[in-house]
Amino acid sequence: MIGEEKFIAAIIEKAVEDASYDGSSKFQLKHKVEAIDWMFNPNSEHHWSFLDYCKMIGVAPSRIQRKVKVHLNPKMTMKQQKIMKGNNARI
Question: Helix, strand, or coil here: 43?
Answer without folding.
Answer: coil
